[in-house]
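Shapes recur. One chain:

:::
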Amino acid sequence: MDVRQDEMTSMNVSLPEALRVFVGDRAKGRFGSASEYIRELIREDQRRAAQEKLEAMLLEGLASGEPIEVTPEYWERKRKELQARRLPRAGS
């Protein structure tokens, strides 16, 4: 989910003083503001969640049945099968 600059809305977050100071200190070097720092933390969390989802899907695929050898011949056969599905059937 990419949010363009013109689509931003505000959100207020309450922090204890120690966290507010930490955020301010972290934002000083690499970021222009505390808001930019927080947005980057959220983006990192989004990337992490997407990676976790991908890993779960890969594990599910690995556990889904007997493995098959994927060779160039396998891909050529698959390509031909897909092309045959796309071609209009005679008499349709």
Summary: Residues 34-62 form the longest helix (29 residues).
